[in-house]
């Protein structure tokens, strides 16, 4: 078992497994639990990913505030959140910097990077720095200013080896970590796809 407060891939797998209902709704509570696990993964790698992990911590906390607030019943799922926040009108939603939709969108973009990065780790065809840079360039880089992009790609050069990453997964031997990544990634990908489709349908993919 993983030590208290440390990353466990199994916990992330179980959280994302529970995210999607039979009606293809994404439940907020397991979504945020999965994200807390992914944040522990980022934090276990030291300062390299702090520019992403600190932002994710703030976003998860903001969403937890919505879920635990007076309107908490409106934030049971991503779908109910979108319906609730759009009820005030698109202009009102775009004017809110603390909206759940805007906050989820930022996590959604980072989830795509993590999905691609974990896929690259599982296949193990390239150095981790290359895998991480390719994943970043295909996802988050488009939303970061040049200074952050440059700093990120330099930081990725200091990433540990693939074996070190698989050890961080806290699930036993390397083969077990690779197998569990193969199990977890489709669930993460499913949550990503449903969110992408939902936000595209309501024209929310470019919220400021």
TrEMBL record:
Its main location: membrane. Belongs to the GLTP family. It is a peripheral membrane protein. It catalyses: N-(hexadecanoyl)-sphing-4-enine-1-phosphate(in) = N-(hexadecanoyl)-sphing-4-enine-1-phosphate(out); N-(9Z-octadecenoyl)-sphing-4-enine-1-phosphate(in) = N-(9Z-octadecenoyl)-sphing-4-enine-1-phosphate(out). InterPro entries: GLTP_sf, Glycolipid_transfer_prot_dom. This is Ceramide-1-phosphate transfer protein. Keywords: Cell membrane, Cytoplasm, Endosome, Golgi apparatus, Lipid transport, Lipid-binding, Membrane, Nucleus, Transport. Residues 27-170 form the Glycolipid transfer protein domain. It holds the Pfam family GLTP. It comes from the Eukaryota. It is found in: Cell membrane; Cytoplasm, Cytosol; Endosome membrane; Golgi apparatus, trans-Golgi network membrane. GO terms for biological process: negative regulation of interleukin-1 beta production. GO terms for cellular component: cytosol; endosome membrane; Golgi apparatus; nuclear outer membrane; plasma membrane. One of its GO terms (molecular function) is ceramide 1-phosphate binding. The keyword Ribonucleoprotein does not apply. Signal peptide: none annotated.
């Amino acid at each position: 078992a993983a030590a208290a407060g440390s990353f466990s891939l199994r916990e992330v797998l179980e959280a994302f497994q529970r995210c999607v209902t039979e009606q293809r709704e994404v439940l907020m509570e397991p979504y945020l639990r999965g994200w807390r696990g992914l944040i522990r993964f980022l934090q276990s790698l030291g300062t390299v990913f702090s520019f992403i992990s600190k932002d994710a911590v703030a976003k998860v906390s903001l969403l937890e505030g919505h879920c635990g607030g007076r309107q908490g019943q409106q934030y049971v799922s991503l779908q109910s959140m979108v319906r609730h926040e759009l009820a005030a009108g698109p202009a009102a939603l775009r004017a809110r910097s603390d909206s759940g939709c805007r906050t989820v969108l930022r996590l959604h973009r980072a989830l795509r990077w993590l999905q691609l990065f974990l896929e690259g780790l599982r296949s193990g065809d390239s150095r981790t720095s290359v895998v991480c840079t390719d994943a970043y360039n295909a996802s988050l880089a488009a939303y970061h200013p040049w200074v952050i992009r440059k700093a990120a790609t330099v930081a990725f050069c200091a990433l540990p080896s693939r074996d070190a990453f698989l050890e961080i997964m806290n699930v036993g031997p390397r083969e077990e970590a690779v197998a569990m990544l193969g199990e977890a990634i489709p669930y993460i990908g499913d949550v990503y796809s449903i969110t992408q489709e939902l936000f595209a349908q309501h024209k929310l993919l470019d919220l400021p």
